[in-house]
Amino acid sequence: MRRRLFGAVLALLLACGVLATPAASAVSPPAPRGGHTFQAFFNNHTNHSLTLKAAHLDKGCWNIRPPQKIPPGQQAATWILVSCADGATNGYVTYTIDGTGGQGYAYMPFFVPPPGGDPLGGTQAGGLFKLDRVYHPRGPDANYDLRCLSPAC
User: Fold this and answer.
1) pTM score, whole prediction
2) Residues 6 or more apart in contact with residue 19 via CB below 8 angstroms
3) Which positions ≥6 away from 80 have C-beta within 8 Å?
4) Extended beta strands in 17-128, E state
5) Which helix (H) or strand (E) holds 13?
6) Structure confidence by residue, pLDDT tens digits, 47-67
7) Listed residue (141, 151, 98, 103) closest to 124, CA to CA
8) CA-CA 20 to 30 A from 126: which of 8, 11, 30, 82?
9) How far is residue 6's CA from residue 19's CA, in Å, rounded to a whole number?
């Protein structure tokens, strides 16, 4: 008798929606319509902190925004953007390099086409710094490596 009563109460609660709301759906972001992502891994191989100056998208949406600060020696600070519609995702991220009197910066433009296309984008660095970008061979993800050109920095 108790099992039947418990089953009836449980069925009633499920029918009313009290137990039917999954907790994960409230936390998980909606899936992008275009379905492709771009993940950037930023490696700061310098003795300087970096401060985010700009994070701009012409097309696309941030899933994880670039960090405001990247400490010296930080490995794999990351951000992810997603396509919010069919088509390409493009924009740029710029950091200033602290302690350089405004001379140091890292600029990363990107153009990520729909799946199957080749990603494009260069890098620029100012002051005594060099910024390299390497795209992963199996997808649009990229590593950005910032290094000093002088042993003094």
Assistant:
1) 0.70
2) 10, 13
3) 37, 38, 39, 40, 62, 63, 64
4) 37-44, 50-59, 61-64, 69-70, 77-82, 89-97, 105-112, 124-126
5) helix 2-16
6) 999 999 999 998 888 889 999
7) 103
8) 82
9) 14
